[in-house]
C-alpha cells in the first residue's frame, strides 16, 4: 500500500442536539446537548484500534506516532474533535495525543461542517414540501411516515437517540411500529437535506461533500506523484457529510436503507500493482467491529475490484467541487467568459490609445 490514503468517519455516539425527553436523560448526558456520550468515547477508541491493527501493527505507521506520518482533520464541533482524539489514542499508546487540526470557527469549515444556507436548497424545500424552513419540511415528512406522532423534531430526535443508549423512553417508542416510524421519518428527512435518497440532487450533494471528495481525489493523486508528506489522513465529520459522499460514489445501496452509524466511515487506500496505481474502497458498517467491507467494485466508474486511480478520480465529477460557496451562490467563481470580454475591452482601449497617439505624432510632424 502507498502513503497518503484518506479515511472519513462519523463521530461517536452523542447526546440529542436540541433537548432531552426526561430528567434522567439530562443527567445521563452530563456533557450537554450534542456532546459525546461515554459510549461515543469508547466507539472512537475502538475505531482507533481498527486502524492500529490495519496500519500500526503491520508497520505501515510508526508505533510511536510520528506527526510527519499522521494528519487528523476534524469538524470544529466538539463531538468530532473528541472522536478524533479517541481514535488517535486507540491507534497509538494511550498517553500519546495526536495533533488534530480544525478551523477556528464553524462558519469557516465548508468541507467537514458545511452549513451554508443556499438559495437552491431553500427553493427545493419550497418546491417539494411547500415549506419555508427545514423544520417545516420535517413536519411534512413526519405527518407522512409517523402519522400518529405530533411532537416536534427536537423531542422525537431525543427519543430516538435515548432509546439507542438504553434510556427509558415513551411506551410507543418501544413498539415495532413506533420504532419504524421514528427510523423512517429521520431517514427521509436526512436524505432530503443531504440531496440523496428518493430525491437525489447533485447540487445539494456538492455543497455537502463535494469539497471533501475533491480533496480525497487530490490527495490520492499527490500520493502517487510523491508530492505528499503524510501516510495516514483522517477526517472526523458528520453523517450529513458521510451520507452524500456515499451517494457521490454510488454506494448508497450498500447501506441497505440505513443512515451512517456512529463511528463508521470510509477507508480509501492507494495500491501499487506492477507500477500502476489502484484504489481500494472499504466501509466500516458496525461501530464496534474491527472488520471492514470492501466496496471497490460498486463505486461509480469502477467495473470491478481493480479500480485504477484514473477511474476513481473520474468517477463522479458531477458531485464534486473545489468551492462549495460558489455552488451555493454565496461567492462568484472565476468566469472565463467575463475574463475574455474584459481582456478584449482592455485590448481595444489600448489599441485605440496607440492609434490616437500615433495620429497625434504624425500630425505634429507635419506641422514642423
From TrEMBL:
<keyword id="KW-1015">Disulfide bond</keyword>
<keyword id="KW-0732">Signal</keyword>
<dbReference type="InterPro" id="IPR050645">
    <property type="entry name" value="Histidine_acid_phosphatase"/>
</dbReference>
<comment type="similarity">
    <text>Belongs to the histidine acid phosphatase family.</text>
</comment>
<dbReference type="Pfam" id="PF00328">
    <property type="entry name" value="His_Phos_2"/>
</dbReference>
<dbReference type="InterPro" id="IPR000560">
    <property type="entry name" value="His_Pase_clade-2"/>
</dbReference>
<feature type="transmembrane region" description="Helical">
    <location>
        <begin position="339"/>
        <end position="362"/>
    </location>
</feature>
<keyword id="KW-0472">Membrane</keyword>
<keyword id="KW-1133">Transmembrane helix</keyword>
<dbReference type="InterPro" id="IPR029033">
    <property type="entry name" value="His_PPase_superfam"/>
</dbReference>
<protein>
    <recommendedName>
        <fullName>acid phosphatase</fullName>
        <ecNumber>3.1.3.2</ecNumber>
    </recommendedName>
</protein>
<keyword id="KW-0325">Glycoprotein</keyword>
<keyword id="KW-0812">Transmembrane</keyword>
<dbReference type="GO" id="GO:0003993">
    <property type="term" value="F:acid phosphatase activity"/>
</dbReference>
<keyword id="KW-0378">Hydrolase</keyword>
Amino acid at each position: 500500500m502507498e502513503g497518503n490514503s484518506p479515511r472519513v468517519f462519523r463521530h461517536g455516539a452523542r447526546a440529542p442536539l436540541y433537548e432531552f425527553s426526561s430528567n434522567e436523560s439530562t443527567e445521563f448526558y452530563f456533557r450537554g446537548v450534542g456532546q459525546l456520550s461515554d459510549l461515543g468515547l469508547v466507539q472512537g477508541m475502538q475505531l482507533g484500534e481498527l486502524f492500529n491493527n490495519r496500519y500500526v501493527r503491520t508497520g505501515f505507521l510508526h508505533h510511536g506516532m510520528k506527526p510527519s506520518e499522521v494528519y487528523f482533520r476534524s469538524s470544529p464541533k466538539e463531538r468530532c474533535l473528541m472522536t478524533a482524539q479517541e481514535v488517535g489514542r486507540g491507534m497509538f499508546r494511550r498517553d500519546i495525543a495526536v495533533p488534530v487540526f480544525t478551523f477556528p470557527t464553524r462558519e469557516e469549515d465548508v468541507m467537514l461542517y458545511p452549513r451554508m444556507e443556499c438559495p437552491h436548497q431553500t427553493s427545493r424545500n419550497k418546491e417539494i414540501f411547500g415549506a419555508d424552513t427545514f423544520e417545516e419540511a420535517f413536519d411534512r415528512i413526519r405527518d407522512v411516515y409517523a402519522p400518529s406522532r405530533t411532537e416536534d423534531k427536537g423531542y422525537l430526535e431525543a427519543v430516538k437517540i435515548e432509546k439507542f443508549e438504553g434510556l427509558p423512553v415513551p411506551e410507543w417508542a418501544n413498539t415495532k411500529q413506533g420504532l419504524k416510524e421514528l427510523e423512517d421519518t429521520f431517514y427521509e428527512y436526512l436524505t432530503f437535506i443531504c440531496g440523496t435518497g428518493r430525491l437525489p440532487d447533485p447540487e445539494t450533494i456538492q455543497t455537502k461533500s463535494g469539497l471533501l471528495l475533491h480533496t480525497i481525489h487530490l490527495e490520492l493523486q499527490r500520493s502517487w506523484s510523491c508530492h505528499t508528506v503524510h501516510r495516514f489522513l483522517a477526517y472526523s465529520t458528520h453523517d450529513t457529510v458521510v451520507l452524500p459522499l456515499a451517494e457521490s460514489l454510488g454506494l448508497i445501496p450498500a447501506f441497505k436503507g440505513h443512515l451512517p452509524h456512529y463511528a463508521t466511515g470510509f477507508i480509501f487506500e492507494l495500491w501499487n500493482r506492477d507500477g500502476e496505481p489502484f484504489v481500494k474502497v472499504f466501509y466500516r458498517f458496525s461501530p464496534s467491529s474491527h472488520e471492514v467491507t470492501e466496496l471497490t467494485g460498486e463505486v461509480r466508474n469502477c467495473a470491478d475490484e481493480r479500480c485504477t486511480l484514473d477511474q476513481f478520480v473520474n468517477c463522479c465529477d458531477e458531485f464534486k467541487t473545489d468551492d462549495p460557496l460558489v455552488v451555493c451562490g454565496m461567492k462568484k467563481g472565476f468566469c472565463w467568459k467575463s475574463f475574455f470580454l474584459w481582456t478584449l475591452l482592455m485590448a481595444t482601449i489600448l489599441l485605440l490609445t496607440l492609434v490616437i497617439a500615433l495620429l497625434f505624432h504624425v500630425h505634429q510632424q507635419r506641422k514642423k
